[in-house]
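Re: beginner question about structure tokens

> Can someone show what the tokenized structure looks like for a real chain? I only ever see the sequence side.

Sure, here's an example I had lying around. Input first:
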Amino acid sequence: MPSTPRETPRRDSPRRYAVKSEDYRFTFEAGEYRYEVTEPLVLHPYYDTLFIAWRRLLSGGPRHMVELKKVNMVPGRDARASAREEVRLASLLRHPKIARVHDFIVNKGIPYVVMEHMKGCFLLTVTHAAALVEKRLSPAFAVYVAAEVADALEYAHNAEDETGAPLRLVHRAVGPLRIRLGADGRVKLCNLGAAYSELAGRMVTPRDLLRGDPAYIAPELLRSMWAALESKTDPLTPRELDGRADIFSLGLVLLEMLTAKYPLDPLGLVPSRPATHFPQGLRAERPTWVELEVLFNRVLSFGPEEIERQADLVPEPLRKILGKALQPNPENRY
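And the corresponding structure tokens:
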């Protein structure tokens, strides 16, 4: 993954600065384990900070490689409670295409989520390389990756809690940096930190906080946030948001793989409707690579005409899949 310094960070460059691994090497103990952090995996203000670490029982035995996700401090949310909720939610999911979450730990007051590490790269590394050389990924590869993620999402969307009650889980952050490609060909959906669910005792999202990845967000999520700011209600209810929001996000990822271009690029999108008034007070959980107001209007303006324009060289069967997955109205999606 590129790690050269840049004056202006790009959306598709998870490592913002050139770093020396030794600057991030440290060892600590938490619970029954010793952790030896060896290097950063992702360092970027737009994404969760990830470290690679060796994990070994204090009592001895073999060590295993894991990822440590530094929990983001967000005003209005208890970071530790949020991390515990993520671990609890992940413990209910057992699927080969969903990365496991092992534990929640704290080191020197900093909370981390301990996650499975699979040798390979993020899909973002591949899409970034394709964009740099202006070469589209093969339809076969793109379909394989999308199908594997779709399988993981179908399972997650139908998952239940310990009592058998539906979780109604929505990932909310499906994107190239949450899709891991294994060196052995496996594909895993990662990072449930922004997920919505009806898990008992869940934390309520502040009305003005946009969770998930704004760069791959579904239009109905933005509309629900807008309505929540006006009505002062919980913005994420089952009536307003379900798994079809993730299908839209996955559709954007598939389109990006097939065209080697980010579908909502402000410089490339032709608006099909006038700009929408941006709701005052809306904020993203993390900084965004472009102004939130610009992304807001790009998503709400993205329609069938834009899909046809961008996917003109995509095989017809895949254009039909994209057309259905990226329907502005979730009722018309898969």
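Each token stands for a local structural state, so reading them left to right follows the chain. Helices lie at 79-91, 123-133, 139-157, 219-231, 244-259, 292-301, 304-310, 316-325.
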